[in-house]
Specification:
The chain is of the alpha/beta class. The protein contains nine helices and 14 strands. The longest helix is centred in the middle third of the chain and has 20 residues, at about 135-150.
Length: about 260
């Protein structure tokens, strides 16, 4: 184990390369945008990411980060919250207006409310400073894997309740678009792809967050609650069934009432 600039770096263990060769083929032309005002930390993140075979773009403040985002359209954004010019929350809002590129937040605040705010406002994941090399790379790979998996599946889903356009990340009910956060969308997508099948908390964490080992089952319960309220408000129906002791099952109406 090596320490550098206050960050812990662990040696990669056997078995950690199971996605490596596949990623190297897919990510050679992909770019990761790093928006961080601390020069040393930005250099460190760049070095870690580039050692994994990914190209990087850098920005030292929020406005420059958005300019780089508009110009390069990166595959992933690593975004610090405490930025000058325009803070990370404002950058995240603008990025989300433009699309659903995965966003990994870097935050010095370990407070749970700060993390929840990031996830609810559109971030896909977060890393608390100081962080280890293995944790950073694992979260980057999980986000890219999840994004790639989504692109390889069928683009459309329709049942008696909702229509889901996976490529556009759009959900409609009775021709009205349902406003979902990225996490809520991924959770609904996971459930809708497995209708009438009980999915455990760990399965949903893996499908919607890309990581079940470092997540709490309470996150699933929390976001299921958010998703249920929005579905009931839009359709007066809750298609998500709680299977006590096991998880959740998506059971939409086969047909809608005339």
């Amino acid at each position: 184990m090596v320490r550098e600039l206050g960050h812990t770096f662990s040696v990669r263990r056997p078995g950690m390369n199971r996605f490596r060769s596949w990623y190297e083929l897919r990510m050679k032309d992909d770019k990761v945008l790093i928006v961080e005002d601390d020069d040393d930390l930005r250099d460190l993140v760049r070095t870690v990411v580039e050692r994994e075979g990914m190209a990087t773009i850098e920005a030292a403040d929020g406005r420059e980060g958005l300019r780089q985002f508009y110009e390069h359209r990166p595959r992933l954004v690593i975004l610090d919250i405490g930025l000058p010019q325009m803070n990370g929350w404002q950058v995240l809002e603008r990025v989300r207006e433009l699309g659903n590129v995965p966003v990994l937040i870097l935050t010095a605040n370990a407070d749970e409310l700060d993390k929840v705010r990031g996830l609810r406002e559109g971030a896909d994941d977060y890393v608390t400073k100081p962080f280890g090399r293995q944790e950073l790379i694992a979260r980057v790979e999980a986000l890219l894997r999840r994004a790639s998996d989504g692109q390889m599946r069928d683009d459309l889903h329709a049942d008696g309740l909702v229509e889901i356009d996976f490529s556009q990340r759009r959900v409609t009910i009775d021709d009205s678009e349902l406003d979902l956060t990225p996490t809520e969308f991924r959770l609904l997508a996971a459930l809708a792809r497995h209708p009438n099948q009980v999915l455990s908390h760990d399965q949903l964490l893996e499908m919607a967050w890309g990581d079940s080992a470092n997540r709490s089952r309470q996150q699933v319960k929390l976001y299921i609650g958010y998703l249920r309220r929005k579905l009931v408000d839009a359709a007066a129906e809750d298609p998500i069934e709680t299977v006590r002791g096991f998880g959740y099952r998506y059971r939409p109406s086969a047909t809608k009432s005339a």
